Amino acid sequence: MQFVAYSSAFSAPKLLAMPFQNTLFYGDNLTIMRDRIPSQSVDLIYLDPPFKSDQNYNLIYKTLTGKPVPEQAEAFCDTWDMDAEKAEMAKRIPQMMRETGVPDYYIHFWTLWVNTLTDVQPHLLAYLIYMVERLIWMRPILKDTGSIYLHCDPTASHYIKVMMDGIFGHKNFRNEIVWKRTFAHGSAKGWGDVHDTILLYSKTDKFRWNRILQAHDPDYVNDKYRFTDARGRYRLVVLTGPGLVKAGPSSQPWRGINPSDGGRHWSVPQRALAALRDEGVSIPTELHKQLDLLVEHGFIRFPKKRGGGVGVPEFKLYLPKGQAIQDVITDIPPLNSQAKERLGYPTQKPKQLLKRIIEASSNPGDVIFDPFCGCGTTIYATQETGTRTWIGCDVAILAIKIIRETLSERYRLSEDRDFEVDGIPNSVEAAIELFQRDAHQFQHWAVERVGGFPMKKRGADRGIDGRMYFEAKPGLRSMVMSVKGGHTGPADVRDLYGVLEGDSDAELGGFICLHEPTKAMHAAASKAGRYEYNGTSYDRIQILSVREILEEKREFRTPSKIGSRISTGQVALPI
To answer: Are 44 and 70 in contact (CB under 8 A)?
Structure first.
């Protein structure tokens, strides 16, 4: 796969003709979109970005391991803190907006929000910074016929909508879709919160759209379509429409009945004419002859008045094959706890919802991209719709493991033949490449690779890049972890020791280095002493190189482990 040049604050990917195969990217979607996905190469983007989802991140581990994830881990999964990096990005976003053609008044909106939310709602502002930076990159990778669906929490959807108006253009807003995600939600002081919001934008007015029909509500059918004949179920509708047309045949008498006497006009049922046309019947152009044709084929009846004579004609409105999809979705239920497609993600969406979106806004052969693919629902839905190609991206290695295993076991797909996984190092050289491309993602990978919980936010937190948890009386204890990709020396080991000494929850320290540790580093580690538990002694500071982790399969020594090196089924897949 070719790489795309990137130089300025915002430099759109080059326009390259590159056929995609089904690809699962491990890494930050911002880096993937910027460096790996060419301009105008994606037909449909669906994203369900994390909002208040740090708890969900931990619940995944709890569900799949069966172990209680410590509350402290949430501090290491908190993406929505306003740190120095996000503050700097907030300043750069206006320039990125200008370079991509966002109107000045939306940029002014953004400046006002930053000034207001910094003190009032800093977590929301951090989320908006994260999302806006990525939405700016999503527009250029979309084809001109493409669309984007953003699944969001109602508490943030109005902010996101204003920004999408600016990035994609208000004229390209297509729908605000409401999905009823649960049947009931108790609330002591308010309406029950039972829905999610999905925002649909197209890139231009030449977007793909396929008319999708859904099943009719049986109660609606029984109530409205009470009659049946050889053509099927139908309802009776008056043949005239409101309003008097002063000139033309629609206000003139037909078969002795004058619609203008009641201030109305003849309204020819186009659905009935279309049905006859489909049967090969030639349709005349003159209105009264069209009405005669409908009488001939049994579409119109003349009801009798109680006192004698004929009433206003009625036509038979037959039940269509299905109802066109609506922007309020109530016929796709949420996943229950026992659903076969459940994979452990608390926010997992049903495949049927994604299938409807994919079938409505893409065609066979199109490329579908999910930048927050999680447990892979978009991927599976795309796979089941036929010949479309999928691209998924996730920052968590656990998500990649789940998708890999599901594609292999449930869908009988073979890695390298039917799909590829990109971004997970399997050699020291690949780890070096990851570090050079995205140092934070390298840290993230290294921590998860040995079974720890990584820091999801960028930037150091007291020198800690992650934690590994283990069971030890009187309760859960931890190993604080530091990952270094550049030059390392004894001072880095001493820094980790200082962190360990100041952390009341930690008993051990784990140091991961991209390059081989020196004797001086091992000597500095040995000065930290030993940790004794249950008759076993452990080095308080332990050092592993990437080579030792990958080639020698070495791990940190702890009394037990609660972390990401787990199997999601019968076979544990390599990470």
So the answer is: no
376 burial (CB, 10 Å; 0-12 / 13-18 / 19+) is buried
| C-alpha–C-alpha distance, residues 165 and 161, integer Å | 6
> Residue 195: in which H helix or E strand, if any?
strand 195-202
Tens-place pLDDT, residues 133-176: 999 999 999 999 999 999 988 888 999 999 999 999 999 999 99
Give 236: exposed, middle or buried? Use CB within 10 Å, 0-12, 13-18, 19+.
middle
SS3 152: strand
Of the CA atoms within 13 Å of residue 181, those in its CB half-sphere come to: 19
Q: Which residues contact 145 (CB under 8 A, 6 or more apart)?
A: 43, 203, 204, 206, 207, 208
Q: Give the containing element (helix H, strand E) for 148.
A: strand 142-152
Cβ atoms < 10 Å from Cβ of 274: 11
Distance CA 464, CA 512 (A): 12
Q: How many other β-carbons are positioned within 10 Å of the β-carbon of residue 464?
A: 22
Q: Mark out the alpha helices in 146-208 (DSSP H runs).
A: 154-168
Task: Give the integer Cα–Cα distance in Å for 497 and 444.
Answer: 21
- Residue the block writes with tokens 């796979």: 383
Beta bridge partners of 329: 179
**Strand partners of residue 152:** 197
457 or 525, which is more confident?
525
Q: Which one is predicted more confidently, 372 or 459?
A: 372
Three-class SS state of 507: strand
C-alpha 562/C-alpha 69 separation (Å) is 8
427: left (phi over 0), alpha (psi -120 to 50) or beta: beta
Neighbouring residues of 77: CB distance < 8 A, sequence distance ≥ 6? 54, 57, 58, 453, 455, 456
Q: Which two tokens stand for residue 47?
A: 């994203």
Once rounded to an integer, what is the mean pLDDT over residues 268-297?
A: 92
Count of CA atoms in the C-beta half-sphere (13 A) of 6: 17
Task: Confirm whether pTM is higher than 0.85.
Answer: no
Q: How many CB atoms lie within 10 A of CB 296?
A: 11
pLDDT given for residue 255 in this prediction: 92
- Residues in CB range of 465: below 8 A, 6 or more apart: 443, 446, 447, 454, 455, 481, 482, 483
- What are the pLDDT digits (tens) for 512-549? 999 999 999 999 999 999 999 999 999 999 999 999 99
**Bridge partners, residue 44, by sequence:** 147, 368
End-to-end CA separation in angstroms for the chain: 21
Sign of CA dihedral 548, 554, 555, 559: negative
